[in-house]
Amino acid sequence: MKRIWLIPLGLFVVLLGFLGVGLTHDPHRIPSPLIGRAAPSFELQRLNAPGQSVSPADFKGRVWLLNVWASWCDSCREEHPLLLQYAHRQHVPLVGLDYKDSPVDARHWLAEAGDPYDMVGVDADGHVGINYGVYGVPETYLIDRQGNIVYKQIGPITPEVLKDRLLPLIRKLSS
To answer: Which of 16-25, 31-40, 41-50 has the lowest mean pLDDT?
Structure first.
C-alpha cells in the first residue's frame, strides 16, 4: 500500500521519455506516404497566362520543384528571397502552386516581391494541395524525371535545407 505512489511516478517517467524522444524529431521532416510515388496529376490555369495551363506532364523527363505558397502566408514571405536567389541559379524548374489564394492578390504580391517561378498554377479551391497532402504553406516537393515525389519540405526552405538537402538531391537526380 505504501508503494502506490510509484505508479504515478513511473507513468510520469515514461511520459517524459516519450516527450524527450518527440523533441528530437524535426517537425519539417514529417514522413509523407507520397515519397517514392507518382506526383498527383493536375491541370491548373496559369496565374500569369490566362487560357494556358500547367501540369506535371509539362515536366515529364525533367527534375523539378513544386512550391506551394500563398500571398497571405507569412512563412512564404520568409522563404521568398531564397527562392529568388535559387531562380537566378536555375538548377531545375521551380513551379509555384498558389494555394487557396486570390489570383489578383497573388499577381500583385509577385509583382511587388519578385517572381521566382517558371510557372504558377492557381489552386484556388485547394483540391490539388489536398491531393499532395499539404499540411500548410509553404511546402516544397522535389519531383524526379519519372514524375515521382522524392522529397517533401514542410515549412519554409532555409539556406541549410537548400544547401544540405535539396541541392544534393537535385544534383544526384539530374546527373
So the answer is: 16-25
